[in-house]
TrEMBL record:
Name the record gives this protein: 4-hydroxy-tetrahydrodipicolinate synthase
Organism for this UniProt entry: Luteitalea pratensis
Gene of this entry: dapA_2
Protein family per UniProt: Belongs to the DapA family.
Major enzyme class: lyase
Species lineage: Bacteria, Pseudomonadati, Acidobacteriota, Vicinamibacteria, Vicinamibacterales
Cellular component per GO, a single term: cytosol
Record-listed E.C. numbers: 4.3.3.7
Length: 302
C-alpha cells in the first residue's frame, strides 16, 4: 500500500477535554487520541480553534501536543495549531510545537488587527523562514475578520514550507479558485464538514473535521469514498450525518461537539470562559440527533 501523504484525508480538529475543576484532563487527551487512531483517522489536529486554543496557555498547548504525539506513536501525523495576530509569538509557538514533536503546524490567519493582503503574505513568509515544520494556512474569515484571498494563497503556495490551506471561508467559488491557482501538490482542505464532499469533488485533498470527534470512522469513510471517486457512497454518508454536521454549529464551536461527547460519556462537559455549555434548547436538539445516529447507545455500551 502506498503511504498516505501527510495531512491528506480526514484529520480531526481535536477538542481539549478538561476535568471538572477546569484543568487539562490528560488521561482523556490520551484516550480520545487512541479512539481516533482505532477509528482509522488519517491525521490529528490538537490545540486549534476546536481545541479552545485561545484559553490554553503556551505551556498547556505544549503538554496537549506532547500527549497526543506520544499516544499516536507515529501512526498518523500530528498537525498542531500555532496561529495568532502577533507574528513573533506565532514563530515562538511554532518552535514549541516542533519541540513537542508535531509534524506540522496549522496556522490561523491573524485576527483582530485585520492585516492587508501584503501583511498576510509577509506574516506567513516570516513564519515559514523561521521553522522547519510544514505549514498549513487556515482561512476562517468569520472568526478572524479578514480573508486570505486566492491571489495571496497563490503567492504563499510558492513558498516550499507552506504545503496547504484549510479553507473555512464557506465560499465554494473561492475554494474552487484557490484549487485552480495553486500547484497540484498544494493541499486544499475543507474547513467545513458540510462542504467536505463538494470541496473534494473540486479537487480538494480532505477535511479538518469537527465531527471527527463524534463520528471519526464515519468521517474517515466519507473522505475515503471521495478519494476513490465513489461520490455516490460519499453522498450516502454525508446525507446521514448532515443533521449532526449542521448542529455542531448551532452555537459557537466547540460547545455543541463537546456537549455531544459529554452525553456519550467521552469527556466532562467543562468549558473555559468565555465558552459556555449550549442552552437547554440546543442540548435537546443535539441529544435527539445523537440518538437518531445511534451515538449514545453505541458509546455507552462500549
Amino acid at each position: 500500500m502506498t503511504p498516505r501523504r501527510p495531512f491528506t484525508g480526514c484529520g480531526t480538529a481535536l477538542v481539549t477535554p478538561f476535568t471538572v475543576s477546569g484543568r487539562i484532563d490528560e488521561a482523556a487527551v490520551r484516550r480520545l487520541a487512541r479512539r481516533q487512531i482505532e477509528a482509522g483517522m488519517h491525521f490529528l489536529v490538537p490545540v486549534g480553534t476546536t481545541g479552545e486554543a485561545p484559553t490554553l496557555s503556551a505551556a498547556e498547548k505544549r503538554v496537549v501536543v506532547e500527549l497526543v504525539v506520544d499516544e499516536v506513536k507515529g501512526v498518523v501525523p500530528v498537525l498542531a495549531g500555532a496561529g495568532g495576530y502577533d507574528t513573533a509569538e506565532v514563530i515562538e509557538s511554532a518552535h514549541a510545537m516542533a519541540a513537542a514533536g508535531a509534524n506540522g503546524i496549522l496556522s490561523v490567519s491573524p485576527y483582530y488587527n485585520k492585516p492587508t493582503q501584503e501583511g498576510l503574505f509577509q506574516h506567513y513568509a516570516s513564519i515559514a523562514s523561521n521553522t522547519n515544520l510544514p505549514i498549513v494556512l487556515y482561512n476562517v474569515p468569520a472568526r478572524t475578520g479578514s480573508n486570505i484571498e486566492p491571489a495571496t494563497t497563490e503567492r504563499l503556495a510558492q513558498l516550499p514550507q507552506i504545503v496547504g490551506i484549510k479553507e473555512a471561508s464557506g465560499n465554494v467559488f473561492q475554494i474552487a479558485d484557490v484549487r485552480r491557482r495553486v500547484p497540484a501538490d498544494f493541499l486544499v482542505l475543507s474547513g467545513d464538514d458540510t462542504l467536505t464532499l463538494p470541496v473534494m469533488a473540486l479537487g480538494g485533498e480532505g477535511v479538518i473535521s469537527v465531527a471527527g470527534n463524534e463520528v471519526p470512522s464515519d468521517m474517515a469513510r466519507l473522505v475515503e469514498a471521495c478519494e476513490r471517486g465513489d461520490f455516490a457512497a460519499a453522498r450516502v454518508i454525508h446525507q446521514r450525518l448532515l443533521p449532526l454536521l449542521q448542529a455542531n454549529f448551532l452555537e459557537s464551536n466547540p460547545g455543541p461537539v463537546k456537549a455531544v461527547m459529554a452525553l456519550a460519556g467521552l469527556l466532562e462537559p467543562t468549558y473555559r470562559l468565555p465558552m459556555v455549555a449550549p442552552t437547554s434548547h440546543s442540548l435537546q436538539t443535539l441529544r435527539r440527533i445523537a440518538l437518531d445516529l445511534g451515538l449514545l447507545a453505541e458509546t455507552t455500551s462500549a
